Amino acid sequence: MIMPIILVVVLGVLDLGRAVFSYNTLSQASRSGNRHAIVDQNAARVRTKAIASAATLGLTSSNVDVCFKRADSGQTSCASSTDDCPEVSRTIGCLAIVRAHLTYAPMTPVLSIFMSTISLSSTSIEPIEYVCPEGTKTTCP
Predict the structure, then answer these.
(1) Taking residues 35-58, what's their average pLDDT?
(2) Helix, strand, coil shares of the chain as percentages rounded to 5?
């Protein structure tokens, strides 16, 4: 009689561990992409770096948002295009914003009844330290 309850609790703890692992991996992906973005402002390469650092989650380019905002911007996401720091006028101090996100689905059937999916996301914001001269080099440091 007690065995099903114990089994559900153990599987719930395992699911919680998977969710924490997924969130930590998302955080690592956004930080890794952001470290790359502060010296190389090419959004495609930044996405590739973020995806590569979270290979176990199976992220795609649609799971990683990359944008640049002016230093005096109060925005902390890529949802709005206002306060953009366009590539032609990008300067040191503009903010590089990298957001990694995914939908987590619990594997335990009992927990899936209560929480079918959970949206996880992590955002990293840092000021640009180097403006990559796109026209003169094929790679940035």
Answers:
(1) 93
(2) 45, 20, 40
Q: How many domains does the chain have?
A: 1
Asked whether 132 and 40 are in contact (CB, 8 A), the reply is yes
Question: 139 in a domain, yes or no?
Answer: no
Which residues, 6 or more positions from 103, have their beta carbon under 8 angstroms from its beta carbon? Answer: 117, 118, 119, 120
Close Cβ partners of 11 (under 8 Å, ≥ 6 residues apart): 107, 108, 110, 111
| Residue 62, pLDDT score | 94
Q: Give the other-Cβ count within 10 Å of 124's Cβ.
A: 21
Q: What is the pLDDT of residues 91-129, one digit of tens each?
A: 888 899 999 999 998 888 777 777 788 899 999 999 998
Helix or strand run (H / E) with residue 43? helix 43-52
Identify residue 107 by its one-letter amino acid code. Answer: M
Residue 136 lies in a domain: no
How far is CA 97 from each of CA 17, 25, 32, rounded to the nearest angstrom? 28, 17, 12
Least confident of 1-5, 36-40, 114-118, 120-124: 114-118
